[in-house]
Amino acid sequence: MFNSIFRRYHQILLKKPLLTNMISTGVLLGGGDFLAQILLPQTPDQPFDYLRNLRAIIYGSIIFAPIGDKWYRILNNKVVWTNGASKLENRTLSTILRVGVDQLIFAPFIGIPLYYASMIILENKQPYLENIIEKFESSWWITLKGNWLVWPIFQWFNFYLIPVHFRLLAVNIISIGWNTFLSYVMHNKE
After folding, report:
1. Which of 15-24, 89-98, 179-188 has the least mean pLDDT?
2. CA 158/CA 152 separation, integer angstroms
3. How far is 44 from 54, CA to CA, in rounded Å?
4. Would the keyword Lyase be found if you checked this record's keyword annotation (predicted)?
5. Which ranges in the chain belong to alpha helices (H)?
């Protein structure tokens, strides 16, 4: 059964990669927020916030998925080491470069700021710029440190072993836990 689902997903992904990634990213980001609300409520009697969950789905589908899809293709095509002595050495060094670019450029300066800015705007927390700056000051560094505990190791395997058209899906699966953490940090009042 799992093989047939995976084969069908693969067929759809090859035919409509962006749409497929948008749907899967939205569902999995929504899943992370769902877990954050259920497992890490801010108060014991906190009701489930359906609008918050919808915002996570919208962010994943409409904002992050197109950027993530493009990002993994850029890394695959433009961040390439070609001066190695062998094909294996080039592949290994290309993977190291991709992880470095992903973790030292995308995560701190695109991924994390994009998430917090987008969520503040989707939550209509005005004044936007003031709230975005406040969220960055309170959460950017802790989020980046958490990112560096999880993503470099995973991205090494992702960039080395996973075909480029499956990389966003692989990230999204690991992101269920990561999105739970992000949602918790985003909505933590402390």
Report:
1. 179-188
2. 10
3. 22
4. no
5. 2-15, 17-39, 50-58, 65-78, 87-101, 112-122, 128-161, 164-187
Tens digits of residue pLDDT in 53-64: 999 999 999 999
Q: Taking the CB of residue 26, how many other CB atoms lie within 10 A of it?
A: 22
Query: Is the CB of residue 140 less than 8 Å from the CB of residue 113?
Result: yes
- Written as one string, the DSSP assignment of 147-173 is HHHHHHHHHHHHHHHS-HHHHHHHHHH
Could you report the per-residue pLDDT of 39-55, keeping only the tens digit for each?
Answer: 988 888 999 999 999 99
Structure tokens given for 38: 């259920």
Q: Which amino acid is at 3?
A: N
Question: Is 131 a residue whose pLDDT tops 70?
Answer: yes
Mark 41-77 as b/e (b = at least 16 C-beta within 10 Å): eeeeeeeeeeebbebbbbbbbebbbeebbebbeebbe
Gyration radius of the chain over CA positions: 18
Helix axes 128-161, 87-101, angle to 10 degrees: 170
The predicted model scores a pTM of 0.89
Contact 118, 132 (CB under 8 A): no
